[in-house]
Write a structure and sequence with these properties.
Blueprint (H helix, E strand, L loop, with lengths): L6 H17 L8 H14 L34 H54 L3 E5 L5 E4 L2 E4 L4 E5 L4 E4 L8 E7 L2 E7 L6 E3 L3
Antiparallel strand pairs: 1-2, 1-5, 2-3, 4-6, 6-7, 7-8
């Protein structure tokens, strides 16, 4: 049946036209929801059906919607994060235990080579001073092996290193550059490197062992 042949719809249209005519000018600017709210009690009193509207009443809130809407539910693998952190910590500790001694040994070895170079350079300076002044000069190793003295200056070695001289504690150079010779050992961690002074010529050499 068409909308115009339905008695209920015809009565609704007539009531609306009558209401619009009574309101007068300016009715076209009123929103449809305003007219529905004003005429709904009258229509219900007449036993008519309410106006169909998708927003006649507010939809009840869904129990599944709330403050947590849009949040991703916790994953079943979320508990493995702590296990992974503990595993990474264990691996890091193991690497540190294995690698730290080697790193420390490498640092000590580097300091030992630097000390050997410094001792050799100081011996050359002492020999040059003997040639320049035509007087005997000497480099003296400390009794505790913690350093040496030459040309009025004292130098110490880094912790973990020790100096020793196989020909006494002093190596001398004469005015002509010659020397009775000798060896200064630079020891670190059970490994010793020599700085050798050749007898007669006073030549200085460094040999790794």
């Amino acid at each position: 049946m068409s909308a115009t042949g339905n008695p209920t719809h015809a009565r609704e249209d007539a009531l609306l036209r009558s209401s619009h005519a009574q309101r007068g000018r300016g009715t076209a600017s009123r929103p449809a929801t305003w007219w529905r709210g004003r005429t709904a009690p009258f229509i219900r009193a007449c036993g008519l059906a309410p106006f169909p509207s998708r927003r006649w009443r507010a939809d009840p809130p869904s129990p599944l919607r709330g403050a947590g809407e849009g949040l991703t539910p916790p994953s079943a693998d979320a508990g493995t994060t702590l296990v992974e952190a503990l595993a990474a910590l264990a691996i890091t500790s193991l690497v540190a235990l294995v690698g730290f001694p080697r790193l420390q040994q490498a640092l000590i070895g580097a300091s030992q080579r630097q000390t050997v170079a410094a001792v050799a350079a100081q011996l050359r300076q002492v020999r040059s001073a003997a040639l320049r002044t035509d007087h005997a000069q000497a480099l003296t190793v400390f009794a505790d092996g913690g350093g040496f003295a030459a040309l009025g200056q004292a130098s110490t070695v880094r912790p973990g290193l020790r100096l020793s001289s196989g020909s006494g504690r002093a190596i001398a150079f004469y005015g002509d550059g010659s020397s009775p010779g000798g060896v200064i050992w630079v020891t670190a961690g059970g490994r010793s490197l020599p700085v050798t002074v050749a007898p007669v010529t006073g030549a200085i050499s460094v040999a790794a062992r």
